[in-house]
Amino acid sequence: MAGTAASAQDLLARQAPIDRKMKAVDTLALRNLIHKEQMGSPSAQLYKEWSNKYAHRATELPDSFLINLKNFCMPTTSKVITSNFGRRWGRMHKGIDVKVYIGDTIRAAFSGKVRIVKYEARGYGNYVVIRHYNGLETIYGHMSKHLVKENQIVKAGEPIGLGGNTGRSTGSHLHFETRLCGVALNPALMFDFRNQDVTADTYMFHRDTYESESLLANKARGKDAAGGDAETDVASSKKQSKRASAASGDIRYHKVKRGETLSSIAKKRGTTIDKLCKLNHISKRQRIRPGQILRYS
Question: What is the pTM of this model?
Fold first, then answer.
């Protein structure tokens, strides 16, 4: 019996280095797999630099870029928008303000890697910047507490902070930004806070038309969509609309109403289903939602 026990101990002793080696191999393989997935992600095509020093730095935008909105999580369960993206009080408001209370959980909108965790007294307050694999970067401002660290990998829906009223803020809320190559895009183009959903499975960014699309998104999903007073400057919005229209040519849009189909919209707007699908980069079988904005010319 003693000999058997000693033999078993010898076997375990010999096996231990092998187990450690296999564990190291498994860890290395996992790291390589993660690295391969990240390098193959759209964000790897857009960003040449990784820095923990700045919140955002604008680089050249692509002419067009398809952003995958699947596997998302709404950053907050709040449905109340208190301020739109756009001109406000004589300056540009580069995100959407959503009403939250101090201590409310704020979650990552998509999976990605935390790039910035900082405090900015005259701006974002406690804020987090996440670079996502779909090419977007999201910013979460005015939080009371950080729950993540820089360079941390996070999954969509993972808590990253708590709602607050820090920095340049007059009341507890979440300042939420979506950026592409450091340039602020209207979150309403992709997120529908009232319905706690994204606007579609994908968003096709076009450099020539996103400004006009942003104005339409505010009307469809912004603070004034339910009949309230928007905090955007009306005169400035009209100027932006004219500039966008001039840049994009004779482009027209249709806001989808309940019960409408691609067929009924095509008939109403004097076009074809094929043209609607081509202009909006969708298939004939794709489900359209009330409030969705479709280009028809």
Answer: 0.66
